[in-house]
Write a sequence for this structure.
């Protein structure tokens, strides 16, 4: 039996307005090289000046993971030669990072949880992008110098499931803090996975393989499974030492395999040394106090929803798993509706109608509208069944709730006078059935309800109909 | 540190440079000279000096997170690049 040992490195692009060491705007998908200047193009004489906001966001992350925020941290220079970095080095924090020794709890479906240790989070500059085309490579340095926080876990995860739970939790924290857009597809939240195996019970760490190029939660799971399988096979075939090397492998989502990116003989030699162009990074008491006061985190929000609204743990977890859903839910509640109804209409009715990559953020029906719709059920303006029709209509047509109810003619008939007229007419027209009913054929009650609903075109409040019929039919 | 042909080969690889055969000895001698010069620093006793010692006690200056972008500058820089197309810097292909 083998045990899987996983550690994760997550590169989180901070959502600052400007780059780490110069005032160029950070951007995505702009015209190539428009957001560059002598500093991020590493022209001689241009010097880096630290973006204050990067320290502030680091404090927020450090606080959220219960870590030590180093009031004094240092920058180091990591040398490597590649056209995505015009300076031929990356400024990073090797020896004294801004954040150290944090933890993050992952929760399992059965209600148990596990604490994953976070070794560190350090500030570093992102590289540019290369597009390879035949005999040339095109270099776009818009991204060069964008601030990253690299968050490094200890090798505490023991399965692909745990790794995914960790990444999801970290993603959600980063979004709650709003320190990064954390969009995996756009590369603002990049996950590198370190995987090794060992015989169960063995304390030793064996050769770890780093997997890069994974851009979704699902692929993290898949890449780990595939790599673990490769390592176990090598072990069982007796070729572990030859085939499993400490190396970087790429995950190929089309071929469903990992393959070597650079061999051992080409192992990088980064020649780290203290960055001579920057002094130490200091965090003042004032800055620490201001930015360690962070917004509510997913776990706290979940606990609050459970205690405040008596929500089920599971529902609360669904609602708080991502910030957008949580905000949507809270905005719905501001319409003064019942929390349980809000959950159902958000997670079942609305989310069931969001198709083709639509999310609550891009939903044609916003939180206020959905909240109002639920309100109309609660104040008996429409029935729950009618509300579904109204929602269908609102998904396709821009309109407000009351206008839509009016237009669809779904307003519930709460006018007992009008309802009485309908019921009297039905009783008068069905003498025989009234007799049978009174004679004990109680099933016929349903017939009268049906007739009444039909006559009212479905707008009668079923509860009122029941009560009135019971009285009339004695 | 001994600078020899093996180390020079490694440096060539790391820096993507190729040193001509007739230049190798000269370069090895120059590199050895530089390393020897820096070795002078070893004479200093640093036993009780904090590893993060710096001449200045103050922190690195910081700036506000406000963007300033003058695209005339990067237009100029691109014009001066050995090769550029569609506002990309163009370099020889870097993967096989």
């Amino acid at each position: 039996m083998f045990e899987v040992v996983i550690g994760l490195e997550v590169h989180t692009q901070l959502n600052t307005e400007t780059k780490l060491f110069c005032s160029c705007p950070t951007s995505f998908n702009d015209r190539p090289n428009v957001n560059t200047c002598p500093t991020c193009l590493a022209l001689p004489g241009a010097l880096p000046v630290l973006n204050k906001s990067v320290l502030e966001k680091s404090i927020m992350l450090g606080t959220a993971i219960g870590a030590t925020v180093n009031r004094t941290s240092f920058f180091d220079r990591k040398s490597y030669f590649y056209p995505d970095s015009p300076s031929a080095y990356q400024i990073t924090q090797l020896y004294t990072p801004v954040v150290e020794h944090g933890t993050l709890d992952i929760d399992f479906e059965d209600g148990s949880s596990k604490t994953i240790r976070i070794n560190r989070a350090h500030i570093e500059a992102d590289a540019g992008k290369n597009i390879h085309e035949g005999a040339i490579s095109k270099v776009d340095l818009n991204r060069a110098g964008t601030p990253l926080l690299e968050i490094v876990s200890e090798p505490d995860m023991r399965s692909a499931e745990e790794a995914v739970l960790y990444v999801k939790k970290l993603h959600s924290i980063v979004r709650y803090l709003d320190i990064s857009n954390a969009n995996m597809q756009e590369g603002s939240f990049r996950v590198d996975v370190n995987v090794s195996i060992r015989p169960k019970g063995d304390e030793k760490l064996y050769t770890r393989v780093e997997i890069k190029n994974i851009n979704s939660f699902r692929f993290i799971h898949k890449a780990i499974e595939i790599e673990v399988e490769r390592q176990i096979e090598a072990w069982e075939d007796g070729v572990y030492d030859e085939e499993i090397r400490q190396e970087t492998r790429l995950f190929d989502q089309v071929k469903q395999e990992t393959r070597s990116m650079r061999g051992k003989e080409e192992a990088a030699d980064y020649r780290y040394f203290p960055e001579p162009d920057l002094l130490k990074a200091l965090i003042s008491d004032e800055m620490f106090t201001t930015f360690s006061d962070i917004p509510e985190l997913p776990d706290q929000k979940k606990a609050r929803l459970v205690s405040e609204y008596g929500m089920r743990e599971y529902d609360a977890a669904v609602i708080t798993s991502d910030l957008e859903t949580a905000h949507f839910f809270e905005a719905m509640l501001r319409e003064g509706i019942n929390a349980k109804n809000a959950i159902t209409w958000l997670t079942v009715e609305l989310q069931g109608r969001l198709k083709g990559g639509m999310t609550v953020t891009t939903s044609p029906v916003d939180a206020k509208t959905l909240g109002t719709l639920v309100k109309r059920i609660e104040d008996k303006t429409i029935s729950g069944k009618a509300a579904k029709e109204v929602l269908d209509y609102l998904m396709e047509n821009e309109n407000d709730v009351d206008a839509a109810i009016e237009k669809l003619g779904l307003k519930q008939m709460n006018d007992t006078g009008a309802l009485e007229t309908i019921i009297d007419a039905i009783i008068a027209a069905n003498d025989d059935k009234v007799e049978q009913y009174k004679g004990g054929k109680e099933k016929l009650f349903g017939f009268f309800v049906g007739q009444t609903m039909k006559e009212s075109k479905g707008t009668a409040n079923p509860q009122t109909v029941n009560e009135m019929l019971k009285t009339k039919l004695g | 540190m001994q600078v020899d042909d093996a180390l020079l080969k490694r440096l060539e690889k790391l820096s993507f440079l190729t040193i001509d055969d007739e230049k190798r000895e000269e370069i090895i001698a120059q590199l050895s000279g530089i390393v020897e010069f820096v070795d002078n620093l070893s004479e200093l006793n640093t036993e009780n000096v904090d590893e993060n010692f710096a001449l200045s006690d103050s922190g690195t200056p910081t700036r506000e997170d406000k963007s300033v972008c003058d695209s005339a500058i990067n237009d100029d820089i691109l014009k001066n690049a050995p090769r550029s197309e569609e506002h990309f810097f163009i370099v020889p292909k870097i993967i096989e």
In short: The radius of gyration of chain A is 30 Å.
